[in-house]
UniProtKB/TrEMBL annotation:
Signal peptide residue numbers: none
PROSITE patterns reported in the protein's UniProt record: CYTOCHROME_P450 (PS00086)
Keywords associated with the record: Heme, Iron, Metal-binding, Monooxygenase, Oxidoreductase
Pfam families (alphabetical): p450
Cited InterPro entries: Cyt_P450, Cyt_P450_CS, Cyt_P450_E_grp-I, Cyt_P450_sf
Gene that this polypeptide is encoded by: MAH1-2
PANTHER family the record matches: CYTOCHROME P450
GO biological process: lipid metabolic process
Name recorded for this polypeptide: Alkane hydroxylase MAH1
Cofactor(s) this protein cannot do without: heme
Residue sites binding heme per the record: 458
Single GO MF annotation: heme binding
Length: 510
C-alpha cells in the first residue's frame, strides 16, 4: 500500500508539472513565480527552474527580503525555509548553535558520507572535529607543502607543457584541477599517488564515482523524499547511479585501508622505525590513533572509511571548484590578471622558474588573496547548506522553524546581495578585499559564508588559500590561459559547484 501511494506520488509529482509547463508554453505565458499550487505546492516552480536553480534562488530571495518559505506537495514532508539572510546565518550557526543540527534525514540523504564529520552532530561530531584539529598541525602544513610542490613540478608543469606543444589543442582546465586535487588528496590521506594527472589523461573510475555521488545527493534535494526512496528501492535513475558509485569508492577505500594495515604490520614486524615524529598520511595517523594514543580512540574499518570519505570531499572537490572559477574569472578580467602578475613580480622579482612558492611566500600575496575571496564569494564551492531545529524557534527574519522542517542556506545567493556587498556586488573586484593600508579586509563569516561559520567553520580554510595560491602562481607565471571562444560556463547540479561542461581553454607559454 505504501509503495502504491509512493508510486502515485511520484507519478503526480513528475507528470503534473509537465502538464502545467505545456499549458503555460501553449498559451505563451510566463512561468509563474513561487506560486503555491493546490496539491503539488511549489514543486512545479522548482522543477521548471531546476536548470537555473542557483540564479532562480537569488531572484526569489532578493524579491522576498532574503528568506522564503518553500512548501512541497501536500502528501510529502517537503517543507523548507530557504535563507540568505546573514542575521539568520549568525543566529543558527553561532548564537543558537546547540538548537540546530544536521539531523537524521540529512544523514540519510548524505548516506555516502557515512558517520563522518560532515554528517554527525553533538558528541560524535565533536570527536571527529577534535581528532582532525589534532592531526592538522604545523607539521601537516609542511607535509602538504611538499606534496603540492612535487605535484606542480613533476606533473602539472609537464602536462601543461605537453598541452602547449600540441598546437591549437583545447584542454579542460577543470579536468586538470580534478586530477591534480585527486592525486593530492590521495597522497595526503592514503599516502599513495594514483598519477591521475598525467599526459595520457587516464580514466580513473573512482575519481568519477565521487562526482556521481555528489550529483545524486543534489537530486535528492529537488524531489520529494518518497520519490527518491522509491527510486532507491527500484534501483532506477539517479539512485541506481548512486549505488554503483558507492560500490566503486567503497571498494577503493576498503582496499586502501586493508593494504595500509598490512604495510604498517610489516613495518612493525621488521622493527622498521615507524617515523613517529615525522608527518605521515592521515590514514596512517588514524590507524595509530586506534592503537591508543588517545584514551577515547574510535576504531574499525568503517570508521576509517567514513573519515577518509569525508576528507576526500572536503579537501578535494572544494579546491577543484575554487580553482576552476578563479581561473575563469581571471581569464575574463585581463586587468586583474595584470595586477596579480605585478604583485608577484614586486614580491619575488628575482625568483627562478618554475615559480613554486613556499607557504610563507604565499602569505605575502594580498591582491591574489582578494581575487580568491572574490571567486569564492561569487561561486562558493559548497553552494548550499542545510540544518534543522531541535526545538521549534523563530529566526531573526521572523520565520518559524521546527524539527523536520529543512533550513536551506543559499551560499550562492549570499555572495550576490547588495545589502552586504554593495551595488557592484555582481562584479569581480579583488580590490573589495584590500584596505587602505594594503592589508586584507576582514568580513565576518556569517556574511562571507563560503567556509561556513561558528563552531563548524571549515577546518581547511587557511590550507585552501595556501594551496590555491601555490597552484595559481605556478600556472599564471608560466602560462597564459585563454578561454576557448564560444565556451559559455554553466553551473553544475551537484552539492559542489563545478562547471557543468568543464572549463575549455587554450594554453600558451608566457
Ligand atoms: C576552497 C576550499 C574550501 C571551501 C570553500 C570549504 C568550505 C567548507 C564549508 C562550507 C563547510 C561546511 C559544510 C557543512 O557543514 O555542510 C566546510 C567544512 C569542512 N571543511 Fe572545508 N572547504 C574548503 C576546503 C577544505 C579543505 C582543503 C579541507 C581539509 C582537508 C577542509 C576541511 C573541512 C572539514 C573537516 C569540514 C567540517 C567541519 C565541521 O563540520 O566541523 N575544507 N568546508
Amino acid at each position: 500500500m505504501i509503495m502504491l501511494i509512493s508510486f502515485l506520488a511520484m507519478a503526480i509529482t513528475l507528470i503534473l508539472p509537465l502538464f502545467l509547463y505545456a499549458f503555460y508554453q501553449t498559451l505563451n505565458l510566463k512561468t509563474p513565480a513561487f506560486t503555491n499550487w493546490p496539491f503539488v505546492g511549489m514543486l512545479p516552480t522548482l522543477l521548471w527552474n531546476v536548470s537555473r536553480i542557483h540564479d532562480f534562488q537569488v531572484q526569489m530571495l532578493k524579491s522576498k527580503g532574503g528568506t522564503v518559505e518553500f512548501l512541497g506537495p501536500w502528501f510529502t514532508k517537503m517543507k523548507a525555509v530557504i535563507t540568505a539572510d546573514p542575521e539568520n546565518v549568525h543566529y543558527i550557526m553561532s548564537k543558537s548553535f546547540d538548537n540546530f543540527v544536521k539531523g537524521d534525514l540529512f544523514r540519510e540523504m548524505f548516506q555516502a558520507f557515512g558517520e563522518g564529520i560532515f554528517t554527525t552532530d553533538s558528541i560524535q561530531w565533536k570527536y571527529h572535529r577534535n581528532l582532525l584539529q589534532y592531526l592538522f598541525n604545523r607539521s601537516f602544513e609542511s607535509f602538504q607543502e611538499k606534496i603540492i610542490h612535487n605535484k606542480v613540478e613533476k606533473s602539472l608543469i609537464p602536462l601543461l607543457n605537453h598541452v602547449v606543444q600540441q598546437k591549437d589543442s583545447v584542454v579542460d582546465l577543470q579536468d586538470v584541477f580534478n586530477r591534480f586535487t585527486f592525486d593530492n588528496i590521495c597522497l595526503i590521506i592514503l599516502g599513495q599517488d594514483p598519477n591521475c594527472l598525467s599526459i595520457d589523461f587516464p580514466e580513473v573510475a573512482v575519481e568519477k564515482a565521487f562526482n556521481q555521488a555528489e550529483e545524486s545527493i543534489f537530486y535528492r534535494h529537488i524531489v520529494p523524499e518518497c520519490v527518491w526512496r522509491l527510486q532507491k528501492w527500484l534501483q532506477i535513475g539517479q539512485e541506481k547511479k548512486m549505488t554503483e558509485a558507492c560500490k566503486i569508492f567503497d571498494n577503493f577505500l576498503y582496499d586502501c585501508i586493508a593494504s595500509k594495515r598490512e604495510e604498517l604490520k610489516e613495518k612493525c614486524n621488521k622493527n622498521v622505525d615507524t617515523e613517529k615524529n615525522q608527518h605521515v598520511d592521515l590514514l596512517t595517523a588514524l590507524i595509530r590513533e586506534e592503537e591508543g594514543e588517545r584514551k577515547d580512540s574510535k576504531s574499525g574499518d568503517k570508521f576509517l572509511r567514513d573519515s577518509a570519505f569525508n576528507l576526500f570531499v572536503a579537501g578535494r572537490d572544494t579546491l577543484t571548484s575554487a580553482l576552476t572559477w578563479l581561473f575563469y574569472l581571471i581569464a575574463t578580467h585581463p586587468l586583474v590578471e595584470t595586477n596579480i602578475l605585478k604583485e608577484i613580480k614586486e614580491n619575488f622579482g628575482q625568483k627562478e622558474k618554475p615559480w613554486i612558492l613556499s607557504v610563507d611566500e604565499t602569505k605575502k600575496l594580498v591582491y591574489l588573496h582578494g581575487a580568491i575571496c572574490e571567486a569564492l564569494r561569487l561561486f562558493p564551492p559548497i553552494p548550499f547548506e542545510r540544518k534543522e531545529a531541535v526545538k521549534e524557534d523563530i529566526l531573526p527574519s521572523g520565520h518559524h522553524v521546527y524539527p523536520n522542517k529543512m533550513i536551506l542556506f543559499s551560499l550562492y545567493a549570499m555572495g550576490r546581495f547588495e545589502d552586504t556587498w554593495g551595488k557592484d556586488c555582481m562584479e569581480f573586484k579583488p580590490e573589495r578585499w584590500i584596505s587602505e593600508r594594503g592589508a586584507n579586509v576582514y568580513v565576518p563569516s556569517y556574511k562571507f559564508f563560503s567556509f561556513n561559520a561558528g563552531p563548524r567553520t571549515c577546518l581547511g580554510k587557511d590550507s585552501s588559500f595556501i594551496q590555491i595560491k601555490m597552484i595559481a602562481v605556478a600556472i599564471l607565471c608560466n602560462y597564459r590561459v585563454i578561454l576557448e571562444e564560444g565556451h559559455i560556463p554553466s553551473l553544475s547540479h551537484s552539492i559542489v559547484l563545478f562547471m557543468k561542461n568543464g572549463l575549455k581553454v587554450r594554453i600558451a607559454k608566457r
